[in-house]
Amino acid sequence: MKGRVIVLGQIDGIEAAALMVDGRLEDLALDHSHVMEFSPGAILRGRVERLMKGQGGAFLRLPDGATGFLRAKSGLREGQTVLVQVSGAAEKGKALPLTSRLLLRGALVIATPGAPGVNVSRSIRAPALRDELQQAAEDALSALALGDSAPGIIIRSAASDADIAEIEAELTQLASLAAAIARDEDTAPALLVDAPRPDEIAFADWITPPPGAVMREPGAFEQSGAEDALRALRSPRIALPGGASAMIEPTSALVAIDVNTGPDTSPAASLKANIALIRDLPRQLRLRGLGGQVVIDFAPVSKRDRGTLEQEITKAFRRESAETALPGWTRLGLFELTRKRDRAPLTAFLGEG
């Protein structure tokens, strides 16, 4: 199936959304409530339970007895009430990662409670359009008369092809909700805004010009090929061109990746296999829900070709939304990178193959 297709429905009884591009699965959103107390994106009122100065943050008591960790927030004191948002997934038994930088995401607008100001996405380059969007956002925000509780507004790139009325309507909805959050004065831990559902994530983040088709009828995952792609991801093995392959195996400490050339062990085959793995690696980690420390044992290459691999890795992760750092080569010739755990592992939902 050519083009962009958003697939909505269920897989193994779990609400899900999948993004297919030219028949290939590119992104996935699953209902995390099956595997986590609070899903990424949920906004909570928490209470500081214990300061961890050596770790640059604090443990927070959350609703229903859950625990979260808020990193690098100065001026905290024990017993203090803090508004936070779940920023990613936690391993079983560990505290939920939290941020005090709250975001309410829409398809056209992002509202930022407690961080005022109006900004237009840098990807919108036309000066006249930028000025028009900036003025429209400022006028719509001013008309709400929210005073000191007025949030910040970010006009997203998708707004470049939207009607001003659509932008203003979404801005009004999100800004009003953000202002209500900013005015919150209760102290008991509570859930203030639930995490977005998979379909809400799809329409907020995947609808880019052209928007493509939407499939939501029964059997949509099977008909689109998304179900087969998900089943394939349960296996640690990835087939690469020329009979090469790679194994992606998460452990409790790190994600280990091994590249094998197959029957052709020539330098050219090694370089080809490594590059093929690199170009698909951001997608593989994203779909498998893997993050933390990632260690890659590439097929053997010369030191000269290591520079080529570094360039390919930088290029591959340049547009990846999850925070990624590339420390580089170890003394043993492995390549290290770190990726933020922005979602739970796929195996937590579907099990291992």
Explain the layout of strands and helices.
Layout: E1 4-11, E2 14-21, E3 24-30, E4 43-52, E5 57-61, E6 67-71, E7 81-86, E8 96-99, E9 104-105, E10 109-112, E11 117-120, H1 127-144, E12 152-155, H2 164-182, E13 190-193, H3 198-205, E14 213-215, H4 220-224, H5 226-232, E15 237-239, E16 245-250, E17 255-260, H6 267-288, E18 292-297, H7 303-317, E19 324-329, E20 335-339, H8 346-350
Parallel strand pairs: 1-14, 6-8, 11-12, 17-18
Antiparallel strand pairs: 1-2, 2-3, 4-5, 4-7, 4-13, 5-6, 7-8, 9-10, 10-12, 15-16, 16-17, 18-20, 19-20
Helix pairs in contact: 1-2, 6-7
- How can the largest sheet be summarized? 6 strands, mixed
Q: Could you say which structural class the secondary elements and strand pairing correspond to?
A: alpha+beta
Helix content: 25-40%
Shape: globular
Enumerate the spans where pLDDT stays under 50 for 5 or more consecutive residues. none
Counted beta strands: 20
Largest beta sheet: what is the strand line-up? 15-16-17-18-20-19
What's the end-to-end separation, in Å? 26 Å
The residue-averaged pLDDT reads 93
Order of helices and strands: EEEEEEEEEEEHEHEHEHHEEEHEHEEH
Q: Please give the radius of gyration in angstroms.
A: 22 Å
Oligomer: single chain
- How much beta, percentage-wise? 25-35%
**Structure annotation, total helices:** 8
